[in-house]
Inverse folding.
């Protein structure tokens, strides 16, 4: 599955647009991780525990989006974006884009 944040993929021609696809996940932190992360914020610096949680949430949302595109028959997603939002005790990550069918430009 090809993906791009722009609306064109070099060397490819969009032959069909299948609409918006998305993947969404909501993640919470465990109590021990929240305590460790909270202690880290007191002293400042990078909170690696939370960074890992965010990265795994982004990856899951991306995978869900590409799976949604596959189900529609797409072989690419263009205009890929992420959106995040806080929730009470959790974080939401949304990944979305436009599912398309592309073919190589030099193909007949």
């Amino acid at each position: 599955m090809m993906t791009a944040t722009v609306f064109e993929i070099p060397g490819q021609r969009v032959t069909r647009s299948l609409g918006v696809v998305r993947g969404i996940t909501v993640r919470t932190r465990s109590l021990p991780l929240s305590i460790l992360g909270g202690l880290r914020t007191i002293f400042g610096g990078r909170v690696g525990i939370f960074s890992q949680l965010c990265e795994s949430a982004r990856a899951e949302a991306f995978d869900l989006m590409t799976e949604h595109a596959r189900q529609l028959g797409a072989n690419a997603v263009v205009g890929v974006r992420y959106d995040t939002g806080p929730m009470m005790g959790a974080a939401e990550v949304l990944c979305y884009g436009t599912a398309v069918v592309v073919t190589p430009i030099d193909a007949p």
Notes: Residues 48-72 form the longest helix (25 residues). The mean pLDDT is 84. Residues 2-104 form a domain with the Translation Initiation Factor IF3 fold (CATH 3.30.110.70). The beta strands are 2-3, 12-28, 76-87, 90-104.
